[in-house]
Amino acid sequence: MSPLVSTVGRRIRAARYAAGLTQGQLAIAIHKHVNTIRNLERDAYSPTLETLDEIAKACGISRLELIPEHEPALQSA
Length: 77
Prior knowledge:
- Helix 1 packs parallel to helix 4.
- It contains 4 helices and no strands.
- The protein has a single domain, classed as Orthogonal Bundle (434 Repressor (Amino-terminal Domain)), CATH 1.10.260.
- The protein is about 50% helix and about 0% strand.
- By secondary structure, the chain is mainly α.
C-alpha cells in the first residue's frame, strides 16, 4: 500500500481535527474510552460500522468520508 493512501485512522484523526475535538472529547461524545480513539487513529484495529457512524455524527460528516477509496491499481478492470 502506498504511504499516500489515506487509512481509516488517518481519516478519523483528520475529521476529529476539523471538528475541533480532542481525542477525549470525541471519546465522550461517542461513549467510548479515549484509548479506543487512540487505537482507531493508529489503525490498531478496525472500527465497526456503528462506531464509524458515531464518529461521523460527532464530527458532523458522513460515514463515507471516513472510508478510504481503493487504490486505482487494486480496482478491477
